[in-house]
Automatic annotation (TrEMBL):
Protein name: Alpha/beta hydrolase
Chain ranges passing through the membrane: none
UniProt GO cellular component terms: membrane
Keyword line: Hydrolase
Pfam families: Abhydrolase_6 (PF12697)
Length: 276
């Protein structure tokens, strides 16, 4: 993986931002480009080697970035709370500006695939619905479409762990401002106003290929999330992984990678057949 770089962007909601990113196999200019969107406590570094492994397996180019508030990107001011629509703002303001800044424009849409995990999966879904002309499709891992009791309970437990164990120091390896990352995520998810957050209506507008994957032992969401995608995006392929928790890329990397590579290859074959 190449060295970290920084993109400077400006958005209506966040103002000027510096976002860290890394390219994987940038020389593969004509290959599918996977854009990786991390979880609620993730960053470029927290993905570890999985994006590289997936790009190696499928012959892809990759782009991994940290959202503002995470990793080495512009931190969240400590007196600022994420709003209820924070994922909408990431999908509709930050991600389009970031892609433009690093040279991934609409002319590359037929090669761009979003790969989002958890909150990053939700942001991917919202981007797919809002900007279908900018992507070929998306892969979402354990996305949230609405808030469940199990999500709140697990996030509340994580708050206790953060305050009473060495979790803060462990996460500090991956974030320049670990409190910015943790409390930005934790505060909004535990905010009573967020209980009514729901993106099912937006997701129903998705027309591009969609692969949705979740572990059957996910501690942050039930299979109601996958069932909702199946019901509202009938063309989506839904995969439920056994013996897998909230992070399929850590718990079941082999079947996950196989499913993603097969899905993107099948889409390429359909496009080639259609063109012929």
């Amino acid at each position: 993986m190449s060295d970290v770089q920084f993109a400077r962007i400006e958005t209506p909601s966040h103002g000027a931002l510096s976002l860290e990113y890394r390219w994987i196999h940038p020389e593969r200019a004509s290959a599918p480009l996977l854009v990786f969107l991390h979880e609620g406590l993730g960053s470029v570094a927290m993905w570890k080697d999985w994006p590289q492994q997936l790009c190696d397996a499928g012959g892809y180019r990759g782009l991994v970035y940290s959202r503002n508030g995470y990793g080495r990107s512009t931190p969240r001011p400590h007196d600022e709370k994420w709003p209820v629509d924070f994922m909408h703002r990431q999908a509709r303001e930050v991600l389009p500006a970031f892609l433009d800044a690093v040279g991934v424009g609409p002319e590359q849409a037929d090669r761009v695939w979003l790969v989002g995990h958890s909150d990053g999966g939700s942001i991917s879904l919202l981007f797919c619905a809002a900007f279908p002309d900018r992507i070929a499709g998306a892969v979402v891992l354990a996305p949230h479409l609405f808030v469940e009791d199990v999500s709140i309970e697990s996030i509340a437990r994580t708050k206790t762990v953060y305050e009473t164990t060495d979790l803060r120091s462990k996460l500090g390896r991956y974030h320049d401002d670990v409190d910015s990352a943790f409390w930005g995520w934790n505060d909004i998810w535990l905010n009573p106003a967020f209980r009514d957050w729901n993106v099912v209506g937006a997701v129903a507008a998705i027309t591009k290929p969609l692969l949705a994957i979740q572990g059957e032992n996910d501690e942050y969401g039930t299979m109601a999330q996958m069932d909702s995608i199946a019901a509202h995006v009938p063309h989506a392929k839904v995969v439920k992984l056994p013996d897998c928790g909230h992070s399929p890329h850590r718990d079941a990397p082999a079947p996950l990678g196989e499913a993603i590579v097969a899905f993107i290859a099948a889409h390429a074959q359909r496009r080639a057949a259609s063109a012929a």
